[in-house]
């Protein structure tokens, strides 16, 4: 070790640091001298090491990999990444829990985020999905309210089951997602053992200018593995980074996780015919009507070198699309198109997309100017506005998606009026076998502990409307837990 030639430690301005062990002081006992700017720089930098954590999905893990096309879908989309069987595209994936802060334990019952940034040769395409095909809300107006119920209570600074069930019981559109959250899939053993979903309806458009509605599915090739609540508690007692560790170590030992990437395709005109609104984020499209079509395989095969630089600063946005892929009328998707880039400008900074992890692998040729930390400005150009006579970049009409017919009067439409919130959760519930049902009832009853009776009763109505057996099962679990708690507390009560 001693004969290793070590580089010289420098200040951030590149000057050699004379002493990195001792501060400059007037005499051995101090005080210190203000001119010891190396000490000031060191302390000042430390004060600036943190950036705001993501307002949701703060705890996460990420890795690089590739997407390889296995099936030609160019009749649906001109997106270049799907251009030819065998074509590979580099990508970054980030997985996360939703509610916990950056230091939260991984093995918590929660929805998991499933974000993928495809560095395509037409720019970055970000698919910012979850491990569930639906969501708790169908109007973005409710997102901040819903998230508040998942975070800490302003007075107690603790998570509040009362707030969660109060909100859910007043928002029946949440029932489908609540059912998934309380099922086995609500607590995956690690990120390798879960599916990913784009969740929203997006659009594809092809060279002929035809549009198709599309949903994205990532099927885990490692299979599904879940913890029970009791198992997860034991895991957390030993290891708060269980999912980070599992992903990192699997990639280090060469067990590269893979997902089969599939799409469901709906012809544009079908959207007027389906009995459900195909742009409603609380609904799935039945596979019998719109079967899965395999597109390719995603593999994760490289860990980041520096977690903060590459994962904490990674910035995914549903607004990042490429020609051949478009949005849909889904109201929640529309709201998200604003929220993410806004969050990145606040959380990471104006030029967040210039950071190596976010930077497209193609040339960026925009007229955006200046701002904090601009370091990659075009050099010596006269074309700094548009239109110009100096050879500056011009728009590409081929990137314009086909026109979409829309109509309707501007109004605040009640998204709850006349909506069927029960049929799809009922179908899901009836797919559970007896053991799955019992865990499901226990998970719900466990999560309801301490919640006022009136709120539990309001939620029971939704369970009953989905399936009376669902309501009865939860009531049984609640009664059993009450009896168990009574038995446990009796010796104490006797001693009092
Ligand atoms: C992260 C907003 C719905 C998946 C975030 C962030 C914001 C946000 C502000 C933090 C972004 C950052 O700082 O980088 C919203 C709003 C929603 C919404 C306003 C609804 C109106 C959804 C839905 C999904 C989703 C429906 C999944 C289908 C994610 C994921 C992340 C995230 C996976 C983490 C991204 C990453 O890995 O960096 N969301 N969200 N969100 N959201 Fe949403």
What does this structure look like?
By secondary structure, this protein is an alpha+beta fold. It contains 12 helices and 10 strands. The chain has helices at 37-47, 143-150, 161-169, 175-182, 229-238, 242-252, 307-312, 331-347, 423-431, 434-447, 453-466, 468-495; strands at residues 60-69, 88-97, 112-120, 123-130, 196-197, 202-205, 211-220, 258-267, 293-302, 325-326. Strands 1, 2, 3, 4, 5, 6, 7, 8, 9 and 10 form a 10-stranded antiparallel β-sheet that branches. Strand 3 (112-120) and strand 4 form a beta hairpin. Helix 3 (161-169) crosses helix 11, helix 10 packs across helix 12 and helix 11 packs antiparallel against helix 12 (468-495). The longest helix has 28 residues, at 468-495. The structure holds protoporphyrin IX containing FE. Protoporphyrin IX containing FE (HEM) is lined by residues 54-57, 60, 94, 96, 113, 115, 128-130, 135, 140, 143, 199, 314-316, 332, 335-336, 339-340, 343-344, 347.
Summarize the structure.
By secondary structure, the chain is an alpha+beta fold.
Structure keywords:
496 residues; binds protoporphyrin IX containing FE; 10 strands; 15% strand; 12 helices; ten-stranded antiparallel β-sheet
Task: Summarize the helices and strands and which ones pair or pack.
Layout: H1 37-47, E1 60-69, E2 88-97, E3 112-120, E4 123-130, H2 143-150, H3 161-169, H4 175-182, E5 196-197, E6 202-205, E7 211-220, H5 229-238, H6 242-252, E8 258-267, E9 293-302, H7 307-312, E10 325-326, H8 331-347, H9 423-431, H10 434-447, H11 453-466, H12 468-495
Antiparallel strand pairs: 1-2, 1-9, 2-3, 3-4, 5-7, 6-7, 6-10, 7-8, 8-9
Helix pairs in contact: 2-3, 3-11, 4-9, 10-12, 11-12
The structure holds protoporphyrin IX containing FE.
């Amino acid at each position: 070790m001693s004969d290793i030639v070590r580089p010289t430690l420098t200040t951030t301005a590149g000057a050699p640091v004379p002493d990195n062990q001792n501060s400059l002081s007037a005499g051995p006992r101090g005080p210190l001298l203000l001119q010891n700017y190396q000490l000031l720089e060191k302390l000042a930098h430390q004060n600036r090491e943190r950036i705001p954590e993501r307002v949701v999905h703060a705890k996460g893990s990420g890795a690089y990999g590739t997407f390889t096309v296995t099936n030609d879908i160019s009749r649906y989309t001109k997106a270049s990444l799907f251009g030819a069987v065998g074509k590979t595209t580099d990508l970054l994936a980030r997985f996360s829990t939703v509610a916990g802060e950056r230091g939260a334990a991984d093995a918590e019952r929660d929805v998991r985020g499933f974000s993928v940034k495809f560095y395509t040769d037409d720019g970055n395409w970000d698919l910012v999905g979850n491990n569930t095909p639906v969501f708790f809300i169908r109007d973005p107006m409710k997102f901040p309210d819903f998230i508040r119920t998942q975070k800490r209570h302003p007075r107690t600074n603790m998570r509040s089951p009362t707030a969660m069930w109060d909100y859910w019981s007043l928002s029946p559109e949440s029932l489908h997602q609540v059912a998934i959250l309380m099922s086995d899939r609500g607590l995956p053993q690690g990120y390798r053992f879960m599916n990913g979903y784009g969740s929203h309806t997006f659009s594809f458009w092809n060279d002929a200018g035809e549009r198709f509605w599309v949903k994205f599915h990532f099927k885990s090739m490692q299979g599904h593995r879940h913890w029970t609540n009791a198992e997860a508690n034991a895991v957390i007692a030993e290891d708060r980074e269980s999912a980070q560790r599992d992903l990192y170590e699997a990639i280090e030992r060469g067990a590269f996780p893979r997902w089969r990437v599939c799409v469901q395709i709906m012809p544009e005109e079908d959207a007027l015919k389906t009995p459900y609104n195909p742009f409603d984020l609380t609904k799935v499209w039945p596979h019998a009507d719109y079967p899965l079509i395999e597109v390719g395989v995603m593999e994760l095969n490289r860990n980041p070198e520096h977690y903060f630089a590459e994962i904490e600063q990674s910035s995914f946005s549903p607004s990042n699309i490429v020609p051949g892929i478009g949005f849909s009328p889904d109201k929640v998707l529309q709201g998200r198109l604003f929220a993410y880039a806004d969050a990145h400008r606040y959380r990471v900074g104006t030029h967040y997309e210039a950071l190596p992890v976010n930077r497209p692998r193609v040339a960026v040729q925009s007229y955006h100017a200046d701002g904090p930390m601009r370091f990659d400005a075009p050099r010596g150009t006269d074309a700094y506005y548009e239109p110009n006579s100096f050879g500056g970049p011009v728009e590409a009409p081929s990137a314009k998606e086909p026109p979409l017919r829309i109509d309707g009067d501007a109004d605040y439409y009640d998204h709850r009026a006349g909506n069927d919130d029960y049929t799809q959760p009922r179908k899901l519930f009836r797919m559970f076998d007896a053991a799955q049902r019992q865990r499901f009832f226990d998970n719900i009853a466990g999560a309801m502990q301490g919640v006022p009776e009136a709120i539990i009763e309001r939620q029971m109505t939704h369970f009953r409307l989905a399936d009376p057996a669902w309501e009865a099962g939860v009531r049984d679990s609640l009664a059993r837990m009450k009896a168990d708690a009574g038995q446990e507390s009796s010796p104490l009560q006797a001693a009092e």
